[in-house]
Amino acid sequence: MIKALHTSDWHLGAQLYERDRLEEQRLFLGWLTETVKEEQIRLLLVTGDIFDSHAPSIQAQTLYYEFLAGLLETESGRPEIIITAGNHDSPQFLNAPREILSRLRIHVVSGMAGPEDLDREIFEIRDEKNNPLLAVCAVPFLRERDLKIAADPAGGDDPLLVYRRAACAHYHAAAERARAKIPGTPLVITGHLFLGGALLSDEDSERFREVGRLSSMPPELLPQADYYALGHLHRPQCVMSNECWRYSGSPIPMSFGEGNQVKSVVIAAFENKAGRPGSPVGGPRIALKEIPRFSRLEQIKGDAADIRRRLEEISCRGESAFIDIQVTHCEGNILDFWAEIEHIQAAALEKRRPIAILAKQDMRPGIRNAVMPERFTEVASLRPMDVFEQKLDGEQLEGPERETFAAMFREIEGEVLCGGDESDED
Q1: pLDDT of residue 208 exceeding 60
Q2: What is the mean pLDDT of the chain?
Q3: Is 386 helix (H, G, I), strand (E, B) or coil?
């Protein structure tokens, strides 16, 4: 038997309303290191969005490399590690240390392999006696530009259909190559994409625009496998009630909308035999291991009295919390109430109580929603993405529509930072 641990969407370096999340991320990676050791994990799969931006901070990079170094010290035998890029990641950045890391059994797949070098995405996991245990197709986030080069569409086809055909063709080619190269073992396929039937983190938003690769991919178009290790969506879940098609989700809540989600990693235990395509028989045994809450994200909604009462409860209990205040009903001008909130926050800081009010929103009917961050930042310290996020706030874009535009901006930013060429092939 072989045990694999599946995790994704770390978003190292991410901020929440300009508040650093590095300490939470450090605690998660420490917990993950201990979990790998305790569970005697043989294979660690990290399926995209390791970093939050194409140009991660030094602090975020340090967390990443310290985590990898810590796994090398595992006494019971260090795991094989496969890392694939997500849409937030820079292929060039992840790829830079690939040759060194591969000699430590840390394999990085940052960009799509061409038809002639599919073996770059195929990995064979063996036991101590060199017997094959598992075949892995490590497919990263498939960028539209790479797939257009592969498909070379002509004739004015719908770009969405062209993308789906090219992406599915790549998945099928990789799966066929893996089965031919490593027969008789269970097959794992990774992916960083939005599959149809999966749930978004923000269920309140019904707005979703199909923009190229950001649209959902019908699962039935993809090849059969014993397990799909998926990334991109932050809600931990299986797809269409299939326990072997799994999003591990983000390890910490990335927005207030995710504040109540139970976060977890997936542990899949495989027998040394391949399952029959389309049949659950022979598939891995799936277990979810809950990730501790390293901070609390809470939206407090209501009138002034409701909000005051809840803030007092949090403060008295000594809870650690990031807070988003939303006034949903209240008569008249609430400027005095906002001033009161400022005093509550100042008192919490003075008494060193672990609460931080990150945003205040007037959500009363007929009032234009304006998010007011708790602290203001010098323009010179803002990243381009920070400025664009503020623009999205002003346009009141939320949920998947917001992610669509944010992802488009990140890709443009990545192309600029990389000199207009994101190809990582030699």
Answers
A1: no
A2: 83
A3: helix
What is the DSSP annotation of 101-169?
A: HHTTTEEEE-SPPPGGGGGGGEEEEE-TT--EEEEEE------HHHHHHHH---S---HHHHHHHHHHH
Q: Does domain 2-290 have CATH number 3.60.21.10?
A: yes
DSSP 8-state secondary structure symbol assigned to residue 316? H
Longest dimension (CA), the chain: 75
Tens of pLDDT, residue by residue over 371-384, are 555 444 444 445 67
| Order of all β-strands in the sheet with 372-373 | 296-302, 321-327, 355-362, 372-373
Q: Which of 188, 150, 186, 181 is nearest to 168 (CA)?
A: 150
Instruction: Give, as one character, the DSSP assignment of residue 273.
Output: S
- Check if the beta carbon of residue 124 is closer than 8 Å to that of residue 183: no
Alpha-carbon span 341 to 307, nearest angstrom: 9
Angle between helices 22-38 and 58-71 (to 10 degrees): 10
Q: d(Cα 170, Cα 150) in Å, to the nearest integer? A: 9
Encode pLDDT of 78-130 as tens digits: 899 999 999 999 999 999 999 999 999 999 999 998 888 899 999 999 988 88
CA distance 383 to 25: 20
> What pTM does this model have?
0.81
Give the residue from 150, 144, 190 showing the smallest Cα distance to 163: 144
Q: Would you kindly state where each structural domain of the chain is located, as residue ranges? A: 2-290, 296-417
